[in-house]
Amino acid sequence: MPPHRLAYRPTVMGRRGVVTSAHPLASMAGIEILLAGGNAVDAAVAVGATLNVVEPFMSGAAGIGLMLISRGGERHVLDFIGRAPRAADATRCTEDELAGGPKSCATPGNLGGWLAALNRFGTMDRLRVLAPAIEHAERGVPLTFKNVEFFEAARATLARSREAGRLYLGNGALRPGSIVTYKDLAATLRQIAEGGAEVFYRGPIAKTIARAVREAGGWLGEDDLAAFEPEWREPVTITYRGRRIYSMPPPFSAFQMLETLNILEGYELQAWGHNSVDYLHHLIEAVKLASADRLAYAYAGEAPITGLLSKKYAESQRARIDPKRAGVSEGERHNTERLPNQIAEGHPAKFADEHTTHFACADASGMVVSVTQTLGVPFGSGFAIPGTGLVLNNILKWMDRDPASPNVVRAGRKAGTMMSPTQVFDDGNFFLSIGTPGSYGILQTTAQMLLNVLEFGMNVQEAIEAPRVRAYRDRLIDAEARIGAEIRDGLAQRGHEVNAIADWSWIVGGGQGVMRDPASGALMAGADPRRDGYALAI
Questions:
Q1: 263 contacts: CB under 8 Å, gap ≥ 6
Q2: Looking at residue 423, what DSSP letter applies?
Q3: Which residues are known to be catalytic?
Q4: What Cα–Cα distance (Å) separates residue 136 from each residue in 26, 45, 50?
Q5: DSSP string covering 239-282, please?
Q6: Cis ω on the peptide bond leading into residue 378 (within 30° of 0)?
Q7: pTM of the shown model
Q8: How far apart are CA 344 and CA 469, in angstroms?
Q9: What's the pLDDT tens digit per position in 53-72?
Q10: pLDDT tens per residue, range 411-441
Q11: CB under 8 Å to 125, separation ≥6 — which residues?
Q12: Which SS3 state, helix, strand or coil, does residue 35 take?
């Protein structure tokens, strides 16, 4: 048995605030801000910027992201997903050009999102919240064992531009414990601290980015950067066994995760037992149904969200699940080749009359900030901008070249991101924040972590550590090998093609979470050992 009930790590607890992120130094940056009197938004901006230094393969100012802020009875979504450049054209690119390089980037959004949140809800100035990131970039940070794994695995990506190779492979030996510095990034962050988003989107940094991209044959221009504005939105919400869950609205894909929960709410999951054959089979089948709806509706204009999240629609979807046989799934993204007996989308419009790296910060006032942000894949496009320390995202990889796809590359389109920072409230009081990186798997991992708490009574660290599955095309699933052979065999008997992956695999995400004890108000945080996740509290 693990030493902490069902977990190997303890749940971190505090009264004045908690921070959980994908790296201990980033979490410490948030704690430093809280100790100095900042609030959860101030801390979140410090964490996001510091991740650019200590987790540069996943996080960066030139990435994109989503934020969910709760304050009292208010819930606010901040959308800082950059659009495809105005010159983007599906007929003028190859699959490889969308996978990486100067044509693969959407307009950077993270920097604008951080500062928009700070301007509206923060209490500190830009220099104060960016100071930890600047100091780490200038003085250097040690590479972790997991850092080195990602750096080595991304050599092909970093070979896409000479500057990326210089930044990340020219810093000396790639070994755990070696110190790396990012002087250009520190200078860029200092310019931003002084001049704000203006210097990044309409000033000298914007001009440098646009010139480098266009000279390399890419699409991103000064006009794309100048036009970028973060957008404030209302979250979407469902109830689950009496608790209210909030997540990201369309055009983003969190509704797949929420629909999955709605479908599963109609079963006695506790009676089946956690990660039993029955539980996992029905979870996987619910994921397939909701995934089919995402592929059909998320990218094709106005998603019928009222119907998609209707309890009666969930009931109709539930009736489509064969309790003893795996269904055939289209998979995680659009595919022109249809499989025999492939699960089709449902018809949510009929139910319209019934009424997508992750970190989180919470402070003593009750403010909670949940953020998921990304470069797309490790080191994004692999295209770095000389003199800035910035590597651009490759978000256009998540669009399609096929003109028949509702998610085809198109000028001005936002990528249909799966990022889904999520918060749960009990009788109006904050109860849980959870989220994860992981591409299309985000929508499956988030649902599993939520169910671990809401159905099986796990604490936040246990919910994050518990072994996971991920469903793909046809009947293929990945299952962490900690899910025993007898369970995997039982799934195979129902028609699932089960692939055992490592006991602790980053393929199924890297979750971070925060909970609040409803009686005492104590804050509790958990972090994922599948990556460098670390939670701290005061």
A1: 286, 289, 290, 314, 317, 318, 321
A2: E
A3: 336
A4: 10, 15, 8
A5: EETTEEEEEPPTTSSHHHHHHHHHHHTTS-HHHH-TT-HHHHHH
A6: no
A7: 0.93
A8: 22
A9: 999 998 899 999 999 999 99
A10: 998 877 788 999 999 999 999 999 998 778 8
A11: none
A12: helix
